[in-house]
Amino acid sequence: MDPLDKALLWELFGNARVSFQDLAKKYQQSFNTIKNRVNKLEKAGVIQEYTIELSMAMLDLEELNVVITTEGSENMNTLLEQIGSHRQVRYFYRSGTNRYAGSAFVTGTADFFELKRNLESLESVLKVEIHPITVFVPDAPPESKVRSPGRKVTFSHNQLRVLRCLNDDVRMSISDIARYTDLTPRRVSKILKELREGGGVHFTMRMNYLALGDVELEYIIRYDDRKTSPKEIIEWAYNQYAQDFWHAVTLLDEPTVVVTLLTNDVTRIKEITGRIREIPFVKSVTDYLIPQQHRGGHYKDPTQHRLDELFKEAGL
After folding, report:
1. Is 125 helix (H, G, I), strand (E, B) or coil?
2. Which CATH number is 212-290's, of 3.30.70.1150, 2.60.120.260, 3.40.50.150, 3.40.50.300?
3. pLDDT tens sequence across 285-315
4. What is the pLDDT of residues 104-130, one digit of tens each?
5. How far apart are CA 189 and CA 81, in angstroms?
6. Are 54 and 184 in contact (CB under 8 A)?
7. How far apart are alpha carbons 157 and 307 in whole angstroms?
């Protein structure tokens, strides 16, 4: 993927209903260029599906970074399936010989310890680390779920009627939504704006960003928090590797930043590691190369169950 592909992915991740016209204007490209780029990403399987997700605030959830260390003799696919079977787990991947990492949702302290206890009980697992995080994605629009946990809101009946349509097809046209709901197109447009700006729901998509053959490079950077900040380190990485930069995660309970780059040139990993080590106040750098086959693909989102409850309560 080139920088335009990556930017389009984060735009659609942040607002799956954004028009090709708006994207063409923002990135100074023709309508057909944007349309063809998105079609290419869809056909390649990078864009897997367009969907809606309730915000973390609506679901009372916190997203956490999870790292598992094993004894190294386990079957990778079997362990990834076992990890992915736990209800809190969002996705997981193998990042090293005996290291697995991913993301999970929890609600409160009891849920946190249940997740930790269940993962620690798996055969060959030696250690489980769980960290609260913040995520930095430079190309994500302001309303994107990676920028904010959203807000807890109460949906009106008409908003739920529109969401019922979007649940089937988040990119459904305003005219089709109006026809299915018996609302006027003007009213539908207003409701869509309310939903997008309200913070209770995200129009988003799910992706496999390695489907075009790029390789994920992950750099775990530990720094001296008395002399620098995660913001400074992330800005350096973004300025140095803007073409490859995908996202960065800051661990909130320890001075560590995880920077992820996408590239088709795996020979660069050691050179990049060396340059990061030269940054003042960086204590250590650990690099991982994560090919497609090491990703577990256990994607979960608790949205659908809660949406079904809301639709049922509204008689929809």
Report:
1. strand
2. 3.30.70.1150
3. 999 988 776 666 666 678 888 999 999 999 9
4. 999 989 999 999 999 999 999 999 999
5. 42
6. no
7. 13
